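From the shared-data thread, chain only:
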Amino acid sequence: MAEQHGELEGIIVKDQHTKEIDLVNRDPKHINEDVVKVDFEDVIAEPVGTYSFDGVWKSSYTTFTVSKYWCYRLLSALLGVPLAVLWGFLFALISFCHIWAVVPCIKSYLIEIQCVSRIYSLCIHTFCDPLFEALAKICSNVRVAVRKEI
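Structure, as tokens:
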């Protein structure tokens, strides 16, 4: 009994709900790689010959960058947790429906269709096979000759 208790202490069980998250790389699967990378240069550009004052350009760059940064942080602080609850609920609902409704319906359909397919196969072999065998015997005596006329 003491040996079993010692073996159980050596096993470390990790809970998937409390796993460590990476605070540096927050998109490890790169799902937002091309979607939200919007910089100042991607939105605002001045063609050659129509330049604004250098001070206006620099302050516009700073204003855009800082306002984008802080607006995102403010929105994520206000709406991040409620939306995480909403998305968690939605994906839990989808999982629940898939596990308790979709898969059982598909399994039930496959069982029922197997019974129907046996009946269908029996009908085909009973009625169609003799018909097509008779037609094959009738057509087996047909000879086709090809002649070239000049």
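The radius of gyration is 36 Å.
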